[in-house]
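Need tokens for this chain, all 342 residues.
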Amino acid sequence: MKKKLLCLVFAALTGFAFHTLSIPHGLLLGSMVGSAAIAISLDHAINLKFGIEYVQVVLGTATGLLMSNWNGFMTPHIVPSIVLMLICLLGQYLVSWVWLCKICKWDQKDAVLATYPGALAAVLDLVRSENTGNRVVVVHLTRLVLITCTLSLMIPSITNQPDITQPFTLQSHAKGLAILLTLCILTGLIMRRLAVPAPFMISAILLTSFLASPLELNAFTVPDWCLDVTTIILGVIIGSKVKGMKISEISKHAGAGLVSVSLMLLFAAAVALIFANVVGVPPLQLWLAHLPGAIELVALIGYSNGLNVAFILLHHLVRMIVLHFTPAILAQSRDYRTRPKR
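Here are the structure tokens for all 342 residues:
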């Protein structure tokens, strides 16, 4: 227990050090680095019971609250843009899969999971359930770092974003939060039985989006300290996945992941540039809507740059629903086909 606590404190301090140095998303990247350093040097992974469930509920609730105050987003370009996004996702997946499977000679299972353009929480669920290799996690870590650095360099105005947080008043929101969180957990448990990846995140996003107004939570925002704890836990969970891997092995897989993710981002950028005028939105906004993941980062970037956040988040929500429920449907179909006939 003491060893786990010391490792957790070290990862958190590394995260705060990165944050103090003004490194983009330093709290997340720093805790990942600290946790990975412990996992590699001491061959010890920090196992946080219910950690991933906590991360999913908090991030899902925060995202759902952002999407609960939509106004004026039902414009004629929404439907064609979402269809374009699904086609773009397929193209991103194919170019990345070809690189890993045909050029890097990965087996098909790892290549499929490594190119899965879902949320990190969902990816971790898939990696855990499929018992796949650590190189899949390394590719997704590369994706997170590359997207973070790319957006931070392209749109540095994130440091000047308006203060959108509001004070946490427990008395006025306690009842509504208790009802919402209970429903999110119960729904997430049902989804998990149906083999839906990141079930608590999906349930939290959907339920919060629809119930924020009836439960009088429109003025509520997730406290900063809660998001900071979530960020550290997620970084620790991700960094611990490199346990048992050598630096040379990580570098090798990171190189493959860098090319793989770069191909996905470049494909999405090309689609945004070509079809921006057809859809009727700025290319940058369309590109952010078509990115393969990092929904929380994209939301912050959108706010800081004055873009249509509702438009962007709607695309990411559709992407998450499609990608998260597809494995569950396939798993149920496979179980049905393999079930012995009476």
